[in-house]
Amino acid sequence: MIGLLFGAAPLTEVSEVTDIISDQKEIQRSSFDSLINEVEAIIESDPSQAFDMLITITLPEGLDSSRLSNYYQTLGWNFNLLGNMDTARQLVEYARELAVLDDSLSQFGLLKNLADIEMHAAQYASALDYYQQAMTYLDTTEQVGHYVLALNTVGHINRRLQKYEESRVILGRAYALSQLHPVSSALKLSVLNELTNLYYFLGEYEKVREMDIQLVDMCRQSGNKRQLTFSLNNLGEDYQIAKDYSRAINCYTESLAIAKSLKSSNLLISPFLGLAEAHSRGGDINSSDQYLDSCFSLVQKGSLDDRRKFYQISINVYSGRKDYLRAYESYKNYISVRDSIFDRQTVDKISELETKYQTDQKEAQN
User: Fold this and answer.
1) Residue pLDDT, tens place only, 130-155
2) Dihedral angle, C-alpha 60, 65, 68, 73, nearest 10 °
3) Which residues are CB-contacts of 204 (< 8 A; sequence separation ≥ 6)?
């Protein structure tokens, strides 16, 4: 009665209005779900259309924004892979705006995505900034795996920026943590690989060999045959540097057997070339020639580096046989491939110098 005196609606009308509002919200959410499902169906096959659809979506009142944020992230990464960095950055920034601010792991993931986009664009200084921001959101005791992954990537970026001592310290810390804490075997392999690459780049070959032996053992334990072939090839190269050709041949022979069992033509090239080179350096020209013949057709479909190495070994083999005409033909092919590689490396070097200049400028401003 009091409610009627003050002009309030009867209880039945209030209930009806509440039901109408509830129905409208349900329609909004259903429409949202329907649009999101459509986006999900085409997000990989047609990122541009998915982008056009996403930017028209209005988030229903009261609905957790994390789902839409996740789709912006996914779409951003797809544009990153397509080489459209500006759109990729824009989408991940949208995702950051929608993310739940008190979720530290989500913030880490978003900043990491932005860093990865910058790395894909070879903008290493910007990538380093994003990763350093991302790491502030991590609890180093509760989220050790994420922390080790971030350290590993920061070490890699510092190597790219020619900050070798910083890279050594950071990767050393990542390695120590990966050994002390229960992180995934894949992450342990990644850290060990990155540290090995740094030592190889610095010419510390004994440390490289120690690390490669560990990598081979870890791959055997994990049963990762594909990674084992790479690690055996690397260890074979270590033994060649040490002029221990017998052990090098053993590594390449095992790698070749695994590659054949996996039926992967791409994996066959490195052990074939390794065996050809090790036998050539060890003085067994005939065996070297046989391995070169076995991989000739594969190498022609392979990388420039594979072809360069093939012709370099061929020069030694034909010269050893005093077949100077074929040695000269191999030399001409070698020079042609080497020049192509040099052109590519020149472009990469210019890009690297530009990145280093941008980093120095940024540090000078700070």
Assistant:
1) 888 888 888 777 788 888 999 999 99
2) 160
3) none
